[in-house]
Design goal:
- The chain is mostly beta strands.
- It has a domain of about 80 residues: Roll (Nuclear Transport Factor 2, Chain: A), CATH 3.10.450.50.
- It is about 10% helix and about 45% strand.
- The protein is built from two helices and four strands, in the order H-E-E-H-E-E.
- It has a four-stranded antiparallel sheet with strand order 1-2-3-4, with no helix packed on it.
- A hairpin with a 4-residue loop joins strand 1 and strand 2.
- The chain is extended and about 55 Å long.
- The two termini are about 15 Å apart.
């Protein structure tokens, strides 16, 4: 995977974000669950979901043309591990695996 980083490397990247230009366009996520594998003995579920992210531009080079334009931004998967108890479900781990490799400059919002 092109961005397979541990916590320390991801933290270092996120710590630098305030020094970067940011794209403030609205991102909208669409998630569809593919599979749920539940382990009753461990009270845990492994869930794989498809992730699609759309971006609606606030402004562009030609703002009168690009403003309000919505485009496909990223495609990938969520791979979640969820702990299930009698009264709640808690997200224990999430791996975001993007198929999209080229994200625009200033795109620093986590999915």
């Amino acid at each position: 995977m092109w961005a397979d980083r541990d916590f320390k490397a991801m933290k270092a990247s996120f710590d630098l974000l305030p020094r970067h230009n940011s794209d403030r366009s609205k991102l909208t996520r669409q998630v569809s669950i593919y599979t749920v594998d539940y382990d009753g003995a461990a009270h845990e579920a492994n869930v794989v979901s498809a992730l699609t992210v759309y971006r609606t531009q606030l402004d562009g080079v030609n703002s009168y043309i690009d403003s309000g334009q919505t485009s496909l931004y990223a495609v990938g998967l969520y791979k979640d591990r969820i702990k299930v108890t009698d009264d709640a479900a808690k997200l224990m781990e999430r791996v975001v695996q993007l198929d999209t490799r080229q994200l625009d400059i200033g795109s620093h919002k986590p999915f």
